[in-house]
Amino acid sequence: MKSLFITYALLFAGLLIPVCFGLYWLSGMLAIPFAIILGCEYIFHRMPAMLFTCRLLLVLVYVLICKLFVFDIFQVNSSSMEGTILKGDVLLVNKLAYGPISLQPEDISWVKLFYKGQHKDVVDRKRGYEKISRNDVFIYELFPGYFVVKRCVGLPQDTIKIDNDSAYINNQLSGFPKDGYQQYRERFRDRSGVKKAVSMIPESAIDSVNIDSNVVIANMAMSQLSGDAIEVERLPNKLLQGKTPYFQPGVWTINNMGPLIVPHGHYFMMGDNRPYSEDSRYLGFIPEQHIVGKTVLVLYSYGDNGFILNRLFKKVL
Question: Considering the entire predicted model, what is its pTM?
Answer without folding.
Answer: 0.82
